[in-house]
Amino acid sequence: MSRPRLTIGTFGDVTTRVTPSGRFEARARYRDWDGRARQVAATGETAKAAERALKGKLAERSLFQPASSTLTPDSPFPALVAYWLEDIDLEARISKTTRNLYERNMRTLVLPAFESLTLREIGVARCDQFIKQLAKISYNRAKQARVVLRLALELAVRHEVLPRNPMDHVSRLYREPHIPDALTAPEVNVVRAAIAQWESAANHISGPKPDGQLGAIVEVMLGTSARIGEVLAIRRRDIDITSPVPSIRLAGTIVSRNGEPTFRQDHPKTARSSRVVALPTFTSDAVRRRLATAGSMGLDSLLFQSRDGTPLTTANVRRQLRQVLDGAGITGVTPHMFRRTVATAVNDNASIELAAELLGHTDTRVTVMHYIQRSELVNPATAALLDRAFAKDQD
């Protein structure tokens, strides 16, 4: 009689014998994840002890199987979320900041709607309705929820718990076309004047006096198109102001996580974001003034730092900029607006390709969609062309 066929992860009858040394040995056939059945043995002082040791060894072998073997279509959605987060940690392919963002979005946006459902109950219609309802509240929330829900369900598909990912058939998200905000040259000068007035401490009443860093930070953003985190991560070694063409190397960013001290990450947002940017005169002048004010500085010292020598947080700089400009009656200006302002100026005076290169983008479509303020003025050369094409005959 042929033995019954074992399924993946199961074992056959356990047999026990006494070894020449007098110990008991328990054996069983076990079908591994690769489909091959193998004999697995363990020994003990008694037959029961040998069987317990064998079962423990088989349990350890099951760890080599994908953890989805513990999930079924009837598993609750939170069980998949827990394994998905564990899988992210094991792969270690994304930054801790992104991982924490995924967990937050899953916990706050998705779980409230899916925590009472089993995996088999999560279909296209339910996912589509969820994303559409969330999009009515916020496009960005819907977009973030869509990402994490797709990733978690994709893991269930890869481990053959679900036959297909329902998120593959959810309708696309649409949003109204958005024209990026950018400052004009006169508006930039108004912002500069407001910051200079505040830094002069003319109306200072109490507390530490302004140290001049906010104005320099803005000049560096205007001269490099760098993100605020990249600017705050600039070290003394990244600055070259002695060459005929002064430059700054953007090769890091500032990271703040809940429960952890703010620190400098040794790479920016993307690999393309690492770049050396030539400085316009107004930026190199601001950097020289900052270096002179800071005094002795090691190569790894941050150009901008707190009075205690610790990194400045992006949140604090944003808050300080907002407070200073609010005091001058200027609203709506954010650090990222300077990045869009630079991109628009470079595009208007050169090309979209140069603007994308300066911003560290690999795709000019991103630059066009999110950073370039479209001008309504059509090139006036069209008037001359049409005059030549359709000029009236002279009487």
Automatic annotation (TrEMBL):
<dbReference type="InterPro" id="IPR010998">
    <property type="entry name" value="Integrase_recombinase_N"/>
</dbReference>
<dbReference type="InterPro" id="IPR011010">
    <property type="entry name" value="DNA_brk_join_enz"/>
</dbReference>
<keyword id="KW-0238">DNA-binding</keyword>
<dbReference type="Pfam" id="PF14659">
    <property type="entry name" value="Phage_int_SAM_3"/>
</dbReference>
<comment type="similarity">
    <text>Belongs to the 'phage' integrase family.</text>
</comment>
<dbReference type="InterPro" id="IPR050090">
    <property type="entry name" value="Tyrosine_recombinase_XerCD"/>
</dbReference>
<dbReference type="InterPro" id="IPR013762">
    <property type="entry name" value="Integrase-like_cat_sf"/>
</dbReference>
<feature type="domain" description="Core-binding (CB)">
    <location>
        <begin position="75"/>
        <end position="157"/>
    </location>
</feature>
<keyword id="KW-0233">DNA recombination</keyword>
<protein>
    <submittedName>
        <fullName>Tyrosine-type recombinase/integrase</fullName>
    </submittedName>
</protein>
<feature type="domain" description="Tyr recombinase">
    <location>
        <begin position="178"/>
        <end position="387"/>
    </location>
</feature>
<dbReference type="InterPro" id="IPR004107">
    <property type="entry name" value="Integrase_SAM-like_N"/>
</dbReference>
<keyword id="KW-0229">DNA integration</keyword>
<dbReference type="Pfam" id="PF00589">
    <property type="entry name" value="Phage_integrase"/>
</dbReference>
<dbReference type="InterPro" id="IPR044068">
    <property type="entry name" value="CB"/>
</dbReference>
<dbReference type="InterPro" id="IPR002104">
    <property type="entry name" value="Integrase_catalytic"/>
</dbReference>
